[in-house]
């Protein structure tokens, strides 16, 4: 197995863990109007990163890989934004949310870098 393939599998597992943490967060957010809106959005985008990354790995061509990976990057950016709003709005400042936000920034950097390398 190549190093590149191992790396892609490691990232897949990291995104799986992130998705599971997003689902945990969805149980923690308040059941208020704004809490429900953010909960829906962050859960949708946060789990979509993993789903689209898996689709990228199954891509039938480099172009398809790049396309699905680009969607993962967009979803990672959106997720980071929603997590920032959770923190900035005061909905939650729990350490779990802060850690999740930090991880979302790392994931965004990793996927963006991967996309950049795959477009060469």
Give descriptors for this structure.
120 residues; mainly alpha; elongated
Q: Could you write a compact summary of the structure shown?
A:
The chain has helices at residues 3-28, 33-57, 62-89, 95-118. With 120 residues, the protein is an all-alpha fold.
Strand and helix map with partners:
Layout: H1 3-28, H2 33-57, H3 62-89, H4 95-118
Helix pairs in contact: 1-2, 1-4, 2-3, 3-4
Give a description of the structure.
With 120 residues, the protein is mainly alpha-helical. Helices cover 86% and strands 0% of the residues. It has four helices and no strands. The chain has helices spanning 3-28, 33-57, 62-89, 95-118. It is elongated and about 45 Å long. It starts with a helix and ends with a helix. The relative contact order is 0.15. The model has no long low-confidence stretch (mean pLDDT 96).
């Amino acid at each position: 197995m190549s190093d590149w393939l191992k790396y892609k599998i490691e990232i897949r597992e990291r995104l799986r863990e992130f998705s599971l943490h997003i689902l945990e967060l969805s149980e923690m957010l308040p059941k208020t109007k704004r809490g429900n809106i953010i909960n829906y959005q962050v859960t949708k985008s946060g789990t979509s990163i993993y789903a689209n990354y898996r689709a990228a790995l199954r891509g039938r061509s480099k172009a398809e890989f790049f396309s699905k990976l680009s969607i993962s990057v967009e979803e990672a950016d959106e997720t980071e934004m929603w997590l920032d709003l959770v923190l900035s709005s005061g909905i939650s400042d729990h350490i779990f949310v802060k850690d999740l936000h930090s991880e979302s920034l790392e994931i965004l950097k990793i996927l963006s870098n991967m996309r950049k390398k795959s477009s060469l």
